[in-house]
Amino acid sequence: MQPIAPAEESQLDGPASTGRGRAVKLKTKEEAAQWFADRGITITEWALERRFSPALVYQVLAGTRKAVRGSSFQIAVALGMKSVPVDDFESA
Question: Domain of life here (predicted)?
Answer without folding.
Answer: Bacteria
